[in-house]
Write a structure and sequence with these properties.
Order of helices and strands: EHHEHEHEEHEHEEH
Oligomer: single chain
Strand content: 15-25%
Helix content: 40-55%
Structural class: alpha/beta
Distance between the termini: 39 Å
């Protein structure tokens, strides 16, 4: 069972882009639309706020030499910063090869390429790197099958594996539904915090 140590949820007025399996006009295949939308969202949210990183460190409590998975690593800024803070070895996974290339270059330029690595892959099938902890910053809402995702995370983390996540949901009522989905998928949610007000404040400050 995956233990979701803390889930930071932000409610938004409109839902994220939903990718249906119906035909999509070329060249915008579902996978390309996913990558485009995720890249735009990352640009809008910028890097994870320091409060999110502080919460991540406090919940997972990584130490020098620990292994962590970054699920939906994007351009790698969080992984590099987390390594600097803790000394943990991090493997980031993202569906976008462009994001992985940028993240790899960032880690190399920061001099941590040996300890912070990035791979193109499916979040539902993370690599086995001996990690007992993982984090997903604004990436779980892009997963088409949350049950499959949690099963894959639980499989690689093992019993008692710990996950920290931040999620955007369409409306406050969706928070309860999200918790229910996670628990139905076999996860145990220890703590869920509504951080909508903090996200709104960040938007107003831009």
């Amino acid at each position: 069972m995956v233990v979701v140590t803390r889930l930071l949820v932000s409610a938004i007025l409109t839902p994220p882009l939903v990718l249906a399996t119906a035909a999509v006009p070329a060249p915008f295949t579902p996978i390309k639309l996913f990558i485009i939308f995720k890249t735009v969202l990352a640009a809008l949210l910028a890097a994870a706020p320091r409060a999110d990183l502080d919460a991540l460190v406090a919940e997972l409590d990584p130490a020098f030499g620990d292994s962590l998975l970054d699920l939906g690593c994007g351009f790698g800024g969080i992984a590099v910063e987390l390594h600097h803070r803790s000394g943990a070895e991090i493997v980031g996974v993202d569906i976008s090869s462009r994001a992985v290339a940028i993240a790899t270059a960032r880690a190399r330029d920061a001099g941590v390429g040996a300890s912070v690595r990035f791979l193109v892959g499916d979040l539902a099938r993370p690599p086995r790197v001996g990690a007992r902890g993982a984090y997903a910053i604004d990436s779980l809402m892009f997963v088409p099958d949350l049950a499959e995702e949690m099963c894959g995370i639980g499989d690689v983390l093992g019993s008692g594996g710990r996950l920290f996540a931040t999620v955007l949901v369409p409306g406050s009522a969706s928070q309860t539904r999200l918790r229910g989905l996670l628990e139905a998928a076999g996860a145990r949610v220890e703590r869920l915090d509504n951080v909508t007000a903090a996200l709104a404040e960040r938007s107003r400050a831009r």
